[in-house]
Amino acid sequence: MQPDLSNRLDRIIDLLLVRQRQGMVRVVITGTDPRVLPETLAALEALSQAGYGLRVTLSHSASLSAVYGAFQCWREGFAPELLYDTRMPQAEEEYGELFLPAISGNSLAKIALCLSDNVASAWAFHALCHGRKIIVTLGDEFTRAALPEAMREQLHHYIATLKSWGIVFPGVTTQSKGKQLISLADIRQQPAGTALRPGRNVLITPAAQDEIRRRHIILYKD
Fold first, then answer.
1. What single-letter DSSP state applies at residue 168?
2. What mean pLDDT do residues 63-68 have?
3. Spatial distance between the Cα atoms of 168 and 162, rounded to a whole number of angstroms
4. What is the sign, positive or negative, of the torsion defined by CA atoms of 59, 138, 77, 96?
5. CA distance linking residue 145 with residue 148, whole number of Å
6. Cβ-based neighbour number of residue 5 at 10 Å
7. 108 with 155: CB under 8 angstroms?
8. Among 164, 144, 161, 160, which residue's Cα sits nearest to residue 152?
9. What is the spatial distance between Cα 18 and Cα 31, in angstroms, rounded to a whole number?
10. Confidence class for position 162, pLDDT limits 50, 70, 90
11. Is residue 129's pLDDT more than 60?
12. Any idea what DSSP says for residue 142?
């Protein structure tokens, strides 16, 4: 496994059920691009091997695409006991955290705009209303070189909105006027006593700087 991927998976696990092994994690897979599925499946394997119970839901578009077939092949080979369904959340649901791996731009936008009309947004709002932690990773469409700048800025605006609600994006900083911004919420996601390398042209808010000192985080500047 590639070092960068291993680090991301370790961080996702750390952000989930740190003290509650065997807890249930609800996973919602979105989008129709099977190229992003290997990393998602690697994350699920890592979580399963770490002792977390998984219940996976595919969005409507994912269940009608090549993603569904690839997911089912993986499930049969790696985790036939993994729970799978495609339903919307009910009033009472037994899960600890919600994980949205490689989220599609469509689902990200709907959540940010409070449009609860698809599987991903319905689960996101259920988790928000019931105080469940939500972990989100981004798909390839957010880093495509051909993506128009205006669209890229809008997507980062949506990410900033969701982060302000307490939704966690591991390793993602919010862009503002061509620069990166590290906020207090970003630092609270960083384990105490670890190192942070923000890179050039990164703005760190005063509250984030105070939290860096309080948590004894080592700050490296390029």
1. B
2. 94
3. 8
4. negative
5. 8
6. 14
7. yes
8. 144
9. 28
10. very high
11. yes
12. G
Calpha distance 81→53 (Å, rounded) = 10
- Over residues 193-210, the pLDDT tens digits come to 777 777 667 778 777 888
How far apart are the C-alpha atoms of 141 and 33, rounded to whole Å? 10
Phi, psi (deg, nearest 5) at residue 61: -65, -40
From the CB of residue 64, how many other CB atoms can be counted at a distance below 10 Å?
Answer: 11
Amino acid at position 181, single letter? L
Give per-residue pLDDT as tens, 76-115. Answer: 988 887 889 888 998 888 888 999 998 998 999 999 999 9
Name the residue with tokens 């269940």. 63
- Helical H segments across 51-115, by residue range: 60-63, 66-78, 105-112
What sign does the dihedral 1-31-17-194 (CA atoms) show? Answer: positive
- The pLDDT of residue 55 is 92
